[in-house]
Every structure is written in C-alpha cells, then in structure tokens.
Amino acid sequence: MTQTWKTLSRATAAGLLAASVALAVPAGGVAAPPAASDRDATVLDLIPADTRDAMLAQAPLVDAATGIKAAVGATTRPGFAGIGLVGDHVVLWWKGSLPSDVAAAVATARRIAPVEVTAARYSRGELAAAAARLAPVADRHNAVHGVRLRADGSGVEVAVEPGATPPKLPGTGVRTTVVRAEELTPRSREDDSAPWSGGARIWAGAGCSTGFGVRDAASSAGYLLSAGHCGDIGAQWTDGAGEPIGTQTHKNADHDTMLISTPSPGGHVYVGGSHDTVRARVTGWTEVFPGQLLCQSGATSAWAIGRPICNLRVEFHYDDREDLVEATQLDGEDSARSGDSGGPVYAVNADGTILAAGTTTRSAGPGFGFQDFATARDDFGDLVPVTGAQTSTCRVSYVVTDSWATGFAAAVTIYNDGPARTGWNLSWTFDGGQLVQGHWGGVFNQTGSAVRVSNDAWNASLPAGGSVSVGFTADGPATIPASFQLDGDTCS
Fold first, then answer.
1. CATH code of residue 453
2. Is residue 292 part of a domain?
3. Do residue 366 and residue 440 come from a single domain?
4. Separation CA 48–CA 44 (nearest Å)
C-alpha cells in the first residue's frame, strides 16, 4: 500500500531561534496602513498555497517527534544529539546504542510518521561542553554573536559578522566551524479590546506586539505573553489606542520573555492586516524542532504587508544565556520588522486554527530569532495558551497515515493542557459507519459509531503538558470525527 500521510489535524503540540534583534518602535513611528484584508478570510487564505501545504504536511512529523522528545526527557540523555524534521520524515541523531525506552518511543513514533535513527559524531552533552568553552571568547569578541549546537551532532558553529576577523578559538575536542552571518537585532494591531488577542500593538513607552493570551494551569491567573526586552516589571501596558491592559508582573531578561497580568486574556491571534479583524483561533501549543515551518504575525509586519510572514524554517536552538531559537524565511523576505517584538510565532492546523510556538525576539533580513513556548513554560510555570474554547484542557491531533479502497489507518495524539492524569479515556463518534479492526497504544471499545480508548498499563500517566499516541485501522471512509472527549471533557 502507498503511504499517503494525509493530514487531518485538529491540533499538534510543540524551538529554534537566534541572536539579537529587539524590535521596539517609538510613538509616531507607524505610517498609514495598506488596505484591509477581506474580513471573511482565514489564516489559510493568507498563506501561499505551497507554503501552507508544506506546513500542514508536517503535522504527523511533529506528533512523532514530540513523543520521542518526551522519552528523551528534559535532562540531556547520554548519546542524544538532536531531533529534526527532514523532508517527509523525522530524524533522531544519537551517538551509540539507543536506550530501551527511547527505542520503544521510536517504534511508537514510526506508527505515526517515518522515523530514521542516524548515528551522531557527538552527543548534545559533548556539544554543550564545547560551547561552554567557547562562550568566554564569544562574549569578549564583538564580531561573534552566537554559538550553535548542530542538531545532527556533527559539531559546533560560531557565528561571526561578515567581513570581521574571527577570534582565536580554544580547542574543545569537538569539530568547530566559523560561519558568516549577520547578527539578528531585536524587534519590537492598533486598537484591540478585551479579551486581548495576540498580534496586537501594545505600548509602554515603546511599541511591541502581544504574543498569546495564557493562563496558569494551577492558579487560573491570566496574562499576555510577550518579549522581555519590551519593558520592565511594573510597566503599565496599553493597547495601540491607549486602553489599559494591565501591569507587567514577570520577566526573564535572558530568555526575552515577559507576562502582562490581565483578567481578560484572549484565545485568538490577529493574522491579517493592521486594521482588519481577520483572526485565527488558538487551540494549544507546540514543541518546535529543526526543519519545522512556522509563521509570525507581529503588528508592524501586519501593517506593512497585510498578512502573516510564513515559511519560517527552524534552524538551530542556541545553547547560551539567551537559549533562543533561530529560523530562516525561505523566500528571502524580511522575517520581522521593528515593533514585531513579542508577537506570536505559530504553527497552522488544517482547519485554520493555530498552535502557539513562541514569541518574536530578533531578526536580520530573512534571519529570525524567537523564544519557544516551551521555554516560557519553564520560565513562568505551567502556562497554557487561552483557547477559543476557554475551558478546554486537552487537544487532539488525528492523522490518517494510510488509506486504501475499503479502509484506512490513523494515529491519534492526545495533548494534555490540564492537570496530570493517572489513567485516561478518550472517546469520539464516527459519522460514516467506520469500524475499528486493529489497534495499538490503548484498549479500544466500539459500540455502534461510538469509540472509547483507555490507557494501557504502560501509558497510564499523562503529565501536564504531556502527550500520548494511539492508533488503529478501520473499515470505512477516512473522515475526521467532529469532536473528541478526554475523560468527558471536550478537546480542542
């Protein structure tokens, strides 16, 4: 049978950025906007067709990569070098033999998307140790603006300004390459109202953009996420027309993240022009991986071009004080403009909804730097995006991995944005007479058109911010169920 990898994604979960453009715009720095976009447009209408299709085709790859990343864990494992999306498959770079739990995660991921395990020359731990030895030299030398760890484990790159003489670098025992790259510089819609949406113009002495409405899963406190360099704790933020939003209460200067406290964070992002109402609904957040394609919708770029900037391909995660992610705009256009700082960086779903991926920090021509959403969670606790369905604590990605004349195979990934669960049950209803035949990853029961999947003993734990995947084959047409319920709660 031919693998079709159709994407019927209701959501996926899931960073790379690079070094130095804080985009802030002083008052009066914005000229007249272009004509507004069609008010009935969606984000899918505003993205070039080939870019849109390439982004949507990555949904199963992100699901598979996220499962592997969870097995690797937050603490770097011996042998691990990196994970990336390469063409139509996921690559896990590893030095030495895979531990049994990671091998099991790879086997599960291969039920969702093609996965290759490739030998790495160095582990991420070895690369990080080499980067630490290079950091003092980089900090002293003005022409050096970044140390990059290659996701494929092949070595370390030192980014140096074009035309500048590179410094003498110490020996590290790891292959080190000098690359010429313009330094990214910080980047900082005109009249929003509560509940506050992402991508809107905000002011506190200088202009930036809102990223995403978020809430603390433990306390339910509401905030707007944006870029740390835009302001300081205690700053009073307003929208572009001067309406008060709230007080800045949190900041991580190294990671360029900050929170503005507000009782009314919104679950949408502006994706059209500066003065239209075209917005996309946020349904969750996503990990980011090298090779992943993303969009950004900062307020100034919206004014300048009337659409999001997409085809931003993640290149590197930096391993330094800022710990940013670097991407490249593949069509050669400017990736961001002054005033885009803090604006939303996101992945696009097939139904026109979006997933929070991070917030804009820097740019230089097509070069783009952002902080990923996962790092904001590390900075400020168990943050989750406010979604169009405010009470939703879960989201589901449903991907058809194969199809034939009389049936299909599908992978279903559950993302938990609520409290940790010990034991879980997912249910949905088919609408075309589909009948489950084979399955993996859970205990399946079907009564008529209703399907219920319960955990196996080995995957009963579903942590806050975690995910789990199951799959099945079925007779009948490969259509997407209208809704999913996790332990009785409707997922986005």
1. 2.60.40.290
2. yes
3. no
4. 8
112 token code pair: 């969702």
The larger pLDDT score, comparing residue 95 to residue 76, is at 95
Single residue among 385, 418, 437 that ends a domain in this structure? 385
Give the domain extent around 417.
394-490
CATH number at residue 378: 2.40.10.10
Cα→Cα distances 366→48, 183, 184, 346, Å: 17, 11, 10, 17
pTM of this structure: 0.80
- Residue appearing with tokens 């993205």: 47
Beta strands in 365-442 (DSSP E): 367-372, 383-385, 394-404, 407-416, 421-422, 425-429, 435-440
Distance CA 127, CA 154 (A): 9
| DSSP assignment letter at 456 | -
- Same domain, residue pair 285 and 246: yes
- pLDDT above 70: percentage of residues in the chain: 89
Element (H, E) at 362: strand 354-364
User: Before 195, cis peptide (omega within 30)?
Assistant: yes
Which amino acid is present at 98?
L
Return the minimum-mean-pLDDT range out of 70-74, 141-145, 176-180, 408-412: 141-145
pLDDT tens for 179-225 read 888 877 765 466 677 788 888 889 987 789 999 999 998 888 999 99
Do 321 and 372 fall within a single domain?
A: yes
Q: Out of 385, 409, 428, pick the residue that ends a domain.
A: 385
Phi, psi of 130 (to 5 degrees): -65, -40
Q: Which two tokens stand for residue 469?
A: 């995947």
Strands of 192-235 (E only): list them: 196-198, 201-203, 207-209, 212-216, 222-226
Cα–Cα distance, 17 to 182 (Å, whole number): 14
Which positions ≥6 away from 18 have C-beta within 8 Å? Answer: 146, 148, 159, 184, 315, 316, 318, 324, 325, 326, 327, 362, 367, 368, 369
d(CA 116, CA 287): 19
